Amino acid sequence: MKSTTVDRHIGLLNLAKTLSFLVVFVAGVVVGMTASSQINRYFVSQAKLYFYSNMNNHFSAMQIPNPTLRNCSSEANLTHGFSDNELFWRASMVPRRAKYPFKRVPKVAFMFLTRGPLPLMPLWERFFEGHRKYFSVYVHALPGFELNVSMHSAFYKRQIPSKNVEWGTVALAEAERRLLANALLDFSNERFVLLSESCIPIYNFRTVYKYLINSDYSFVESYDDPSRYGRGRYSRNMLPDIKLYQWRKGSQWFELSRELAVNIVADTKYYTLFKKYCKPSCYPDEHYIQTFLNMFYGSLNANRSVTWVDWSMGGPHPATLGAANITEGFIQAIRNNGTVCPYNSEKTSVCYLFARKFAPSALEPLLNLTSKVMGFKNF
């Protein structure tokens, strides 16, 4: 009997030890899991903090909507300091959702490719006056040059980081892509016009804006030239990616929709071929965009330029027009020269919105015609 009682006590003691061990073990597991979770959360949160902090620092100069989505314009920030690769990468980003989650007024980006001064700037200032929310200005000049304008000017702080450009080289096409990329950082820009320091508008802002914003197509001249000035500039080294029958030529002065501007900036494959094989005497600015659009986006292109030029003098450059050429009849002749061109699904006599090549001496007589002939008035 005594032995049985002792055995029972020993059994109970062992059970208590086992239960105590299990309680301690379970408690250790719970504490360990909790601590591990806290540590993981700490390191994950620190990693996220580091990642987003660095991303925000890296892209702080670029126009990504703030949490309140109040401002998606890069209107005041062009000195971002990015390399071309960084700039093109960011500019080629496209939202997956078509509808903007903020009020967006579509704008036209006027992109000026110039060596230095803009002698016809007063004419453009008068053209832009009263329409600030409908346009953006971008200027690509030679490095070191600075436009001297007042803070009220449409050109104030609108120069983009630039590089040296030489006529007839791939640097011209590179400058065009640089202008497009900077303009794409502003989500409100919907249409993109390339202009030079010798270009002028021949209609008022309202007419130009509605013409471009309502167009279903971009305006890039792209045609097959069988001569040595067209197909003769093609390099067989571009095979098999670019074939001779796909090669196109056209005016450098284009107008693009946002969709096509993004695709041009995003392209690396075909631009690399042009950079490598379209050397001087090939003139990439007359062939790269023209060939690229013909190969992939021909159905989105009106296949004509909206910039008038006078080639009647012959030679590699158009005629330069000075003060003696500027009359009311001359401007009217450009605007209504008997040409009829397609616009969306209709025909129109308004085929040109801009003209070049105008000398500085043309400024004063042009300013005298802005009200009577060009109709520069506010909305």
Automatic annotation (TrEMBL):
It is a single-pass type II membrane protein. It is found in: Membrane. The chain crosses the membrane at residues 12-35. One of its GO terms (cellular component) is membrane. Its main location: membrane. One of its GO terms (molecular function) is glycosyltransferase activity. Coiled coil: none annotated. The keyword Transmembrane helix applies. It comes from the Eukaryota. InterPro entries: BC10-like (IPR044174), Glyco_trans_14 (IPR003406). Pfam families: Branch (PF02485). Keywords: Glycoprotein, Glycosyltransferase, Membrane, Transferase, Transmembrane, Transmembrane helix. This is Core-2/I-branching beta-1,6-N-acetylglucosaminyltransferase family protein. It comes from Vitis rotundifolia (Muscadine grape).
